Amino acid sequence: MRQDPTTKEWVIIARDRAQRPHELVRKHNGPSLPEYSPTCPFCPGNEHMTPPEILSYKDPGTGCWRVRVFANKYPALSPVGSTTRREEEGFFRSMDGVGMHEIIVETPLHDERLARMDVRDIEHVLQAYRERYNALSAVDFVRAIVIFKNHGPSAGTSLMHSHSQLVATPVIPKMMRIRQNVAADYFDSIGRCLYHDLIEHERELGTRILRETERFVVFHPFASKQPFETWIVPKSRQASFGSVTDRDLTQLAGLLQMTLGALDKGLNNPDYNYIIHSAPTGEEDMKYFLWHLRIIPRVATMAGFEMGSGIRINPAIPEDTAQFIRACLKHCGRNL
Amino acid sequence: MRQDPTTKEWVIIARDRAQRPHELVRKHNGPSLPEYSPTCPFCPGNEHMTPPEILSYKDPGTGCWRVRVFANKYPALSPVGSTTRREEEGFFRSMDGVGMHEIIVETPLHDERLARMDVRDIEHVLQAYRERYNALSAVDFVRAIVIFKNHGPSAGTSLMHSHSQLVATPVIPKMMRIRQNVAADYFDSIGRCLYHDLIEHERELGTRILRETERFVVFHPFASKQPFETWIVPKSRQASFGSVTDRDLTQLAGLLQMTLGALDKGLNNPDYNYIIHSAPTGEEDMKYFLWHLRIIPRVATMAGFEMGSGIRINPAIPEDTAQFIRACLKHCGRNL
Predict the structure, then answer these.
(1) Who has the most CB within 10 Å: A151, A257, A287, B57?
(2) B2-332: what fold?
């Protein structure tokens, strides 16, 4: 059992039921897609099928959009209402579902996927993330912004055209508060940033590192909750994704392309989620937290034990999966 | 948004993307199974394919077992090792994966399922849970016991023959500690048991209640995290499932049959998990916690936002799903 130093959760790394990395390779290919779909609301020419455009980046040559942002037509939260808590019967607590839910279409091509996109195009996607993050973090009631991507049906996608999402919430998610509290306790006791120490120790060991650059470390964490879970953590001390620099974004785009590319080749286009973890908005000056990006391939099913206890059973050993991906990286010939 | 009073987590009840209960009915039937499978380690006659029997209840007439318990052949935790924490590089914390992982085969019939079983047979399964719970809670290093069932592939089953599992852990799962702390805070402030007040308020409102008996309340909770999430909570003040009485077990068997039966008919045999939540072992005398059973049909996929924030988006309204199941119960003619 290994403890995640960022949440204090214990994880079971199940050596006895361990699956070798190659056993987790996806066996069946998904349906192949056309480059354009007349019924897809995310395809160029179908812009009238979406809510009004909030942001787009256009190709200076053709004038067509490369990245396009608009509100989710079926939002989980919407910007109408109040954050005042209500008490029902003096016991149950509720509030309006006030917030924002946006879609970031990553490419005009219906059949493209992030793992195979040009690094410049990935950089545009990340720029759109940052621009929308900063616009929404200025909204008074917003307490947290979660940027995420669902790739493939078992990761929760309903539309196949490659896109990311952003949800701005009026509350601080419990898991975010737990991570913040653990980092604050560490800072109060040790006097250093937990995430900084974490990447220092991962670098020293080296066995779970996929790649290190001037500004980032990419690794499979010590207490990975799922096979091939990958963290991309900046070395700079930024609690908020909103304050990421242009130069960091360029490097992040390269690392994301590299990591998603290796997973795509190594595991045969697995379904995956990624999430950008940031500090709560309005608490972004804290010195003991680092924003970071986590990629979670959906190769294992969460069953009753995990749902009941919160303890995850990871059937793959992070040192093995890191070695497997390093071999893919060598083999793919991808280099930064 | 609604707050779960037992964890303080906020849940988004997405009215805008709400699915009507009947939209969540499973469309395709699974493969039909034979009554006996020669390759199934859980079928009678194949007992040599499992680790040694720990417990079984036999039919007094035929002498054949009706319920059979043995260690999981591929355990997540095993009873060898030490609970001493190790520090790696003075930073990462790990320990031996010491614990127990048992399988409870619920029926000798390969094609049977709990939702259709005789209430007496379900009672035997619950008796086996209690007997193993009490045996394992006496083991010195055991800190928590999680009893759970995975029904169907998307709930994490690999073997189709109907069975439950029990995992005894050497640590207190983080989620269990959070529930305990929330209940302790409530007790310290209000002076009453949170779970007792919770069922009182659910009873007063009535809109989410499926059934109430002398000893139990069955309902879809106010802040359901998933569509058709169902809690069965005792009215008696027991923190531990180990201290459940015979009479409670008899009623629980009836309610489980009723609830699983209604889900089975109403949603066409959905995949589901259930979990028995109990207090940590060794802390079972606490006056402010109630053991309870939660059923979670796997009709919604957890996507990136939920994984990143811990905030669940529930696309169904608990009052609607409760009404749907009450109609099923009437229609099925099931009554206690």
Answers:
(1) A151
(2) HIT family, subunit A (3.30.428)
